Amino acid sequence: MRFLVFQHIACEHPGIFRDFLKADGIAYDAVELDEGARIPSLDRYDALWVMGGPMDVWEEDQHPWLIAEKAAIRDAVQTRNMPYLGLCLGHQLLGAALGGTVGKMNAAEVGILDVELTQEGRADPIFAGMAPVQKALQWHGAEVQTLPPGAVVLASSPACPHQAMRVGRHAYGLQYHMELTSRTVPEWGDVPAYACSLDETLGSGALPRLRDEAAVLMPEFNRAAKQLYDNWMGLVRTQTKAAQ
Known about the structure:
Number of strands: 9
Mean pLDDT: 96
Order of helices and strands: EHEEHEHEHEEEEHHH
Strand content: 25-35%
Low-confidence stretches: none
Radius of gyration: 17 Å
Distance between the termini: 13 Å
Strand order of the largest sheet: 2-1-3-4-9-8-7-5-6
Structural class: alpha/beta
């Protein structure tokens, strides 16, 4: 089994999920689109993951590779029925690629905040065994504002009603981050766009506070990540067997 991963900045990679993939013996190829890497053929891959990044889905003039990325997502999800997992920008790209709309929020959502599963989310296999209200790292100023056709909302927050969604049976997007490691917050704090939104939202000098808060909650974050990973992999294995 081999996964394809789209990355948009070097520090936003699969994080703790890399440990789970290694333990399961699953190889993956990371394509750093912001550095000019070309999207390979999807033929040899069993699933697609799309990570976060500082750009917005509509910034095709500055980042023309977004056009090809959206086309690849449509191909993966709509044509090939590949399992898909998108986090933050990857969630927004799923929405935009499949016919939804993404736009700026009234106020950025940054920090460790509560996310609540909807009734549909509590019944969805990807969230099996997980708490109905979860603490999660948020770091975004854009959101999926109109769902793509056929999408189901699985989680929400007061500031962002479309925190998680499923499109079809195997494509999932999460606006929040579950891939955290002890290095995530410090590394992201070094990205100018992220540092700016952090200070604008939580006040000057917020990075050490967020780092310390995340460190205390890291065991909880990592347990939730493992549960989500196990649930999602169950869907992938079922889909792979069905396709054989």
